[in-house]
Every structure is written in C-alpha cells, then in structure tokens.
Amino acid sequence: MVLIPDESNFALMQQTEKEALANISSTIEDNGTILEIGSWLLGSTSIIASNTKSIVYAFDVYDSVAATKFDDSIKVDMGDINWYRQAEAKVLGLGQARSAKNLQKYISPRFPNIKCITNTKTKENYNYLLKLLTGGIDMYFEDGDHSNPVIEQHLSMFVPLIKPNGYFVVHDFEAPYANYNDLNKLVNNIISNTKTWKLVNKVDYLVILQKKA
C-alpha cells in the first residue's frame, strides 16, 4: 500500500496524480537516486520519499519569503500570490525565507532521504548537481520552469542520465490551465521515441515514461 503523507497537502497536484506518483515511487529500489526539479514546499517530494528509501534530491530556486501576517478568515484562491506566501508561512513561520536550509530543517525529521539543493542557475551549481548524479538517475520528476530555455536545458541535461528501466515523470503535461507549449513539445518528442521510451501511465496531467532496457 502506498503512502500519501500530510506534507503532500502542499503538492500542487490532484489526488489521482499524487497516487500515481506514489505508486511509481514505490517501485524504486531503496538504494536508488531520484531527482525532482521544482519542489516548492516539498509536497510532491514527500510523496516520493514516503514510498522509497532512495535519496531524493529536491532542486529548486528556493527564493520566496513567507507572509509576515495573514488572516485565515479571508479566502485566498490557489494560484494567487498571497496563497503561496500564506502556505509558506504555515510551514516555515511568518516572514521566514523559503530557503533550502529552512526547508531541510522542516523536512529532515520525517524524511531524512530528502536533500534540498538550491538552484542558483549557474554553471558551477549544475556541475555540483551532476556530480551527485554520476551513478545515473532511477527517477527524474520534472515540475519546475516549463518554458524554454530552462525546460530544454533541464531535459537535455538530465534525461540522458536516466538508467535503463528508470522513469521520467512530468507534471503539467498538456494541462489546459496554462500555456506550456515548450514543455508539451519536448515531452511529446520523447514519447514519440518508442525505441527508447515506453508510456507507462498518464493520469490527468502527470505523465510517466520508462526508459527501455
């Protein structure tokens, strides 16, 4: 039975997508390596880490600051900038930076297999991450910047590192709520390469591909 932890309340995903992510994560051997790009408050990261003992590298810009005050009696819709800042305040405390250090402190007691790494968008930063991934990736979950040149850079850099029988998971694929044409085009190109990739599952706007052995 897969686990959907309380921390997943901060995953910007539908319940069916969370369950699909949990299911595929549960198939990763405990000594594996998982890369997640785009982690926000580690909601989806916690789903992955709940279902495998593999190390999960959470790579994100971690650059926002939580609200200094808010009123819970005032409804704020998801997607509004205040909704994000209020959620960050609930997790990290009023006015706290959404830094890798603060999120690591928050998540480590429950999920010591999660390692937060700040994306400073520098060559040295990417080289540091690549060194951590020299043994290959068992699962790569992409949920970061969906526009070029960033998404193209990430896919060209990390998809080749996926091991045979490893997984490439993408969120917001062909989603109607935003214009993610760059993401959709790149992922469709990968899907069309049936010699290398097998479409395992598509649940709402989460797509799961497996690299053929």
Q: TL;DR of this structure?
A:
Helices cover 33% and strands 21% of the residues. It has 213 residues and is α/β, with parallel strands linked by helices. It folds into 2 domains: 6-63 and 98-211, Vaccinia Virus protein VP39 (Rossmann fold); 64-97, no CATH class.
Protein architecture, described:
By secondary structure, this protein is of the alpha/beta class. The protein has helices at residues 15-25, 43-50, 81-92, 100-107, 123-132, 150-158, 181-192; strands at residues 33-37, 55-60, 114-118, 137-142, 162-171, 197-203, 206-211. Helix 1 packs across helix 2. Strands 3-2-1-4-5-7-6 form a 7-stranded mixed β-sheet, sandwiched between helices. The two termini are 27 Å apart. It folds into 2 domains: 6-63 and 98-211, 3-Layer(aba) Sandwich (Rossmann fold), CATH 3.40.50; 64-97, no CATH class. The relative contact order is 0.16. It is globular. The protein is built from 7 helices and 7 strands.
